[in-house]
Amino acid sequence: MNTVTTERDSPIAGRLDGRVPCVASTKTQPVRRDGLRRLRGSDMTNWAEKLGFSADDRVVVVHVDDIGLCPDANEGALAALRGAATCGSVMVPCPAFEAIAETARREPGLDLGIHLTLNCEYESVRWGPLTKDTPGLRSPDGAMWRTVAETVEHADPPEVERELRAQIERALGAGIDVTHLDSHMGTVLHPKFVDVYVRLGRHYRLPLFLPRVDRKALAARGLEEAAEFYGRLVEDLEAEGFPVFDGFDADSLSFEPGTGLEHNLRRIDRLPRGLSYLITHCARGGEELRGFAPDWRQRDEECRIYSDGTMERAFEERGIRTAGMRALRDLLRSR
Fold first, then answer.
1. Measured over all CA atoms, what is the biggest interatomic distance in the chain, rounded to whole angstroms?
2. Band of residue 45 on the pLDDT scale cut at 50, 70, 90
3. Residue 281: CB partners within 8 Å, gap ≥ 6?
4. How confident is residue 226, by pLDDT bands cut at 50, 70 and 90?
5. CA-CA distance, 15 to 9, in Å (whole number)?
6. Residue 205 pLDDT > 60
7. How far is the C-alpha of 66 from the C-alpha of 334, rounded, in Å?
C-alpha cells in the first residue's frame, strides 16, 4: 500500500468518463451467520477492474474534504467538483451545511458523502454536536473538542454512534444522496471508535474510506497490534464486498504557498496501480476563511489547480483515470 499521512488525518493511514461500465459479480456468494454475503477468494479482484478499468490502470478517487465548513469551502469545493475532483464529503454540524444541502438537492448528480465530524479544531469558529445526550463530545465551551486526543479521552463509543447516526440521518433528510462515509481528522478511525464506523457503513450500505493495510510497514514502526487489528478489519470488510483502496494520500496541505502544483504533481506521481484515494481541501480564500483558517492559502491554491484544468491535464498526461464514490456505492449495493 502506498500511503502518505498527516497528523490531522487517518490514524491508519465520482466520476467515470461515461465510456467505462461498472461491473459487479452476479455470482451467488456464501452467506455468513450475520446475513452478510462473503466474496470467495477468486472474486477479490483489483477494485479498478471492478469499476471497469484495466488491472494495470492507476485509478484515483479525487476527494474534497471539509465541505460545509463555511461558504468559502462550499464555493471552492463546487468549483473543484466541476473540474478535476470527483467527489467530496460534507461536515453536517458545520455552519454552511444547509447551503450545500440545498445545492445537492438542485444538483443530484453531485457525488457527496459525509465527513463524519467529532472535532472542531478552530478557535474562532466553533460548532457542537447535533445530539444533546452526548456530553463526552463537548468541550467546556459547548463545542466539540479541538483535538483527536481529547475526543478519545472524553467520549465513549455509544455517544459517538448516536452523534454520527444523527449526522447521517440529517444529511439524508436534507435530500443529499449520500454516497460514502469518511472521517474528519480521522477520529472515528481510532481503535476506540472504529467499530462504530464499520457498523454505520454496514447499516447504511455505504462504502467507507478504507485503505489496505501494510502490516510490515506498521510493524516496523512498532505498531504490531495495530497492524494485526486493522489488517483483519480490512480483510473482513473486503470479504463482505466493501471497496478497499490500494493506496491513499492525505498529504494535502503541507506545502509552502506558491508550490501547490509541484506538491500535487509529486502526490499523483507516487500513486500505485489499482484504486487510490487522494484527499484535497479545496476552498476559496475568501474573507471568512482567511479569518479563521491558518492554511487558507493552501486551500485556495488547491482550489485553483483542481478547478482550472491544471490537474485534469496532469491526470490525462500521466494516464491516470479518475472515479467517484457513487460508482463504488453502486457496486457494494449490487451484491
1. 55
2. low
3. 64, 65, 66, 252, 253, 295, 298, 299, 302
4. confident
5. 24
6. yes
7. 29
Residue among 55, 75, 57 at smallest CA distance from 66 = 75
- Would you give the distance in Å from CA 86 to the centre of its chain? 12
C-alpha pair distances (Å), 63 with each of 10, 218, 249: 14, 25, 10
What type of residue sits at position 205? R
Q: What is the mean pLDDT of residues 30-43?
A: 39
Give 233-298 as a DSSP string: HHHHHHHTT---BSEEE---S-S-TT-HHHHHHHHHHTPPSEEEEEEE------HHHHHH-TTHHH
**Mean local confidence (pLDDT), 265-287:** 97
The SS3 call for residue 72 is: helix
Spell out the residues 6+ positions from residue 180 whose beta carbon is closer than 8 angstroms to its own.
Answer: 87, 89, 113, 114, 206, 207, 208, 209, 325, 328, 329
Look up the pTM and report it. 0.87
